[in-house]
Amino acid sequence: MDIDLITNILFATFKTGTPLILIALGEMVCEKSGVLNLGQEGMLLVGAVVGFIAASVTGNYFLATFCAIFAGMGMAFLFGYLSITLASNQVATGLALTIFGGGLSAFLGTNYIGIGLEGIQVWSVPLLSDIPVIGKVLFQHDPLVYLTLALFALVFWVFRSTRLGLKIRAVGENPEAANAIGINVQQIRFMAVLFGGAMTGLAGAYLSLVYTPMWSDGMSAGRGWIALSLVVFASWKAERILLGAYLFGFASILHLVLQGTRFEVPPNIMAMLPYAATIIVLVWLSSDAIKTKMSAPKSIGQPYRPLA
Amino acid sequence: MPAQESTMRLHLSGIRKEYPGCLANDDIELLVNAGETHALLGENGAGKSTLMKIIYGVIKPDAGKIVWQGEAIQMNGPAHARQLGIGMVFQHFSLFETLTVAENIALSLPADESRDMEALSERIREISTHYGMALDPDRHVHTLSVGAQQRVEIVRCLLQDIKLLILDEPTSVLTPQEVRELFRTLKTLAAEGCSILFISHKLDEVTELCNAATVLRNGRVTGRCNPQEVSSEDLARMMVGEDTPLNQNYQKAEGGETALSLNNLSFTPEDPFGVTLNNLNLKVKAGEILGIAGVAGNGQDELCALLSGEETTSPESIELLGQNIGAMSPDQRRRLGFAFVPEERLGRGAVPNMSLVENTLLSSSHRDLKANGWINYRKVREFARDIIEKYNVKCANEYAQAKSLSGGNLQKFIIGREIEQQPKLLVCSHPTWGVDIGAAILIRHALIQLRDEGAAIIVVSEDIDELYQISDRIGAICDGQLSPVKPTQDVGIETLGQWMAGQFGHDSANPSSLESAHA
Q1: Last residue of a domain, which of B171, B206, B240?
Q2: pTM for the complete prediction?
Q3: Are residues B95 and B15 part of one domain?
Q4: Which of B78, B384, B432, B483 could bond to B476 as cystine, CB 3.0-4.6 Å?
Q5: CB pair distance less than 8 Å for B107 and A183
Q6: Is B59 left (phi over 0), alpha (psi -120 to 50) or beta?
Q7: For the segment B152-187, what is each residue's pLDDT rounded down to a tens digit?
Q8: What CATH number is associated with residue B446?
Q9: How close, in Å, is residue A176 to chain B by CA atoms?
Q10: ipTM over 0.85 threshold
């Protein structure tokens, strides 16, 4: 393999991992607060179609990205109202959201199938992007790749050293106790769900405006579910989500590349590679049962209602 | 009365709170002065907890007036209460196990005081030293003993400018030594002018600590007194009413043949927070009650699970009436004459959503209640009715859901269900935990009667008074190891406390000499 191929693989790794990181980080915050939102796939599709429509109509990608974020938050609001305010079953509500999002996005996007867009352009970092290999791999991306890394840093910092992070963890571990020391459980949970919606909406915009600048039904291709399992396998740790998502991205690119070479491996086995590699590495990382138990939100999936 | 106003810290009047089908508080008046240690006494279901939660703002009263330091107020939730200087230590701690001590405390402080974690840790050390409560701010809460967790709760309250500290049955989870330390802390606090509201149904503690008391029964105030001036008997009378017999002394029994023996029983649980049992050896005789003391979380749960068959082990490490039962399922063991009363009533002792009739069937399926694979519901119903009548279980009827019963009544039902199967070995975990005096007396009486009929009984409990009262022999469990087991009258409270703290190596040779040295 020559150096160009390696550069290209690594470059594509970042692009493939980015939407997974966005969705998984959003879901992680949500789950840390004790809410299990299985509606990622639906929110993702709605974010993608709304972003695409906005970009087609206005031609303004900045505006379109915000539209996608708000669409994701709108879906999350619906979920939050049902599962937090009305304390409905989180699993059922999340699944309903996924089905609803699939249908809604197909309906909205009917007239936009087959249209191509230019997509958000690469924004090279001055000077740094001229470094050989590293410049291409790290500094010749679209703005959303950099934004994703910034958002990762933000989430990491919030949980590592802020009071807000403590509050979210407290609410997710023991909502009754959190309420007893005066934390507004419903409010924290709602904010976490909305954040998850915003992140997933942004990931939707990334899919329909950057990754493949077009709209087709069900274009999320199960990324919402992958991100969901990534959160669990990463034991609710932001740095492991980053690692797992890039690993997944790397393996999925690698299997495409290997198919073009003389390796005599059945393609179906190769197609398993990203899933298997990610699971094996993350399971190995989280083999310490006590540490994993420490970071898992204890009250996840349980609706909470303050006493009257 | 301006003079009286100035010393008055909290004055509740006409407090009323009604839940569907239950009047929890009715026209309650409570007056707590500055620097006073005030006991709130009452049986389970008397309305103590409801009243506490009203003071702490967790629930809103339907009617009534709250006057705080001479000013009528509307309580808007726990945050408001803490702002006013009211702190509360709950019976079930409101701590976050995956956070450190300092993080737990930071969460309950205003944002500007918790920003600098270094300074906060320093303050925690200072305050905990001042009040004689050792605490390491950097430890994770799940690694702390129950006593230490309670200290975290108290220090959390003390970090704010505290004027009233509410403690809900604080001693129920502590060793005798820890209780003494807690009382020392509380006395220091009271001397500094902080008012303390102490909820309990242990009368000797109230007598030792408190200089005022309000007694509740069935949601109403039934008496006010100074516990220093009245006898424990009188206090108990106010709590339970006129017609319940109080303290009883039971004859100690010798026991006969060995019914159960544990032979080098060891166990490593799958749960990472579980306790590993280490080489336990124990013999229980037919016709005796063996009490196992210990602070919660020292291996009691694991031991009970192994005895009941929820966990299995090598066959020969548990021997019941000459049979190796270590690998048997719970049902097989019950067929041999085993019965079990678990600590959790709802979920393990009874299925919450099922009726008492159905719950009766749960642990009696091997009895004569079915024929040819069909359940004989008439017999089951009769059996359930018998239990309800004999054990004075208060419920709508035998079709009431288990979860609709109060804790004490459900416990009477479960104990009755197990005892009525006439077991050869009964294992009871915390038989009277959170049960009021009347029901506790009934339960203990039933246990003694079963013993006199020749059954072997193991009682695992944190209530030391109870163990002394009913056990014929007593031991303690600490960190998965069993202390020596001795006849109850030969084990002083000091020795038992040491056993509960894990010091049972050196004094096992002659515990009575140690006792006399202390006396």
Answers
A1: B240
A2: 0.70
A3: yes
A4: B483
A5: yes
A6: beta
A7: 988 988 888 889 999 988 887 777 788 888 999 999
A8: 3.40.50.300
A9: 7
A10: no
